[in-house]
Amino acid sequence: MAGGPGRIPAWVRRWLASDLGPGVVLLVAAVAALIWANSPVEARYAAFWETMLPHPIGLPRDVRHWVDDALMTVFFFAIGLEVKRELAVGALAHPRAAAVPALAAVGGAVVPAVVFLLITWGGPAAAGWGIPMATDPAFAVGVLALLARRAPSGVRLLLLAIATVDDVLAVVVIAAGYTGRASWLWLGAAAAGCGLVVAVRRSGVTAIWPYLLLGAGVWYAMLRSGVHPTLAGVALALLTPVGVVVGRDLLADLLRWATPLSTFVAVPVFALANAGVRLDGESTVAALGSRVAWAVLAALVVGKTVGVVGTIAAVTASGLGRLPDGITYRHILGLGLVCGLGFTVSLFVTELAYPDSTLAAEAKIAVLASAMLCSAAAALVFAGDRHGHHRASGR
Fold first, then answer.
1. What is the pLDDT of residues 203-224, one digit of tens each?
2. CB 157, CB 134: distance < 8 Å
3. Whole-model pTM?
4. Homologous superfamily of 25-179+228-383 in CATH?
């Protein structure tokens, strides 16, 4: 049956499970935020996300901060699970196969950060050096699925591996560069909570609810410690065992639960809360004259592409790694451009980097503009794909 009362039609489920589904949902949320923030009821946009919620456990937070601090923990938890799976049984499990995406991700993170700092050095905008370092997995894979239908499957696998390592680097950047003065007492409590998770796991408990309770405790301790609480999601995910434990594959079960919750709830709501910037004449002119906006644009469009493509070329030429069969230099260039879609993590770091709302708005406009430019450039590159020209396998 295609569907029935109270059931999602089969074609909708197939579309949501496809590569296009998450990207389209994220795009719709971002467009909705922009329309809302530029509509006659724009004041309600800011008022809604700045509404303070009850805080019975001593956590005065507005709606946007609950989204950024709590809901995005699910996003980072799903990223952590993906990393654990890739390290255990995926593209990062074998050193030679992992060399290309791992080093490409590093090059694709370092070069944009350097480009950004070269443009902003000496001013308050330099604090945003982490903005252009990451790739948005959902958006990038969705754009790739739309633009590169004729590309070999290895391009998608390479993008997923690069985005996975990229996200690990983003977590390190957030922990090292955007964390306030930490409380060792609360960090100790978070570590103790992680220890309890391991103890409960080793005792053979496979029910999810004890881990949810312990995870909430770790999250709270991380929040009170001064370290960004979303990192609790990554830490807990990496503690998840690989393989069958007492008849249950916890990693697979958690991925089935966390991935759709992250993709279709956490990330779209985050985009709705953070992508709504004014795009009137005044704000656009301000962005065009803004050092931070040009830094973000140059770092994501040029720096990211140069970092990814240049590193892949160097790694394959040196023999340290090889690419999947059928990938050409045209595919690599398109891949580098798609990696410039920072979006979710870029917006997230923008919120952490710039307490100044003006700088944050200018950076967000540039993040959105770079996503459009990278997508358009990638479309042109993949449109000329004819397979088999200029092999880049590094053989």
1. 888 788 888 899 999 999 998 8
2. no
3. 0.85
4. Na+/H+ antiporter like domain (1.20.1530.10)
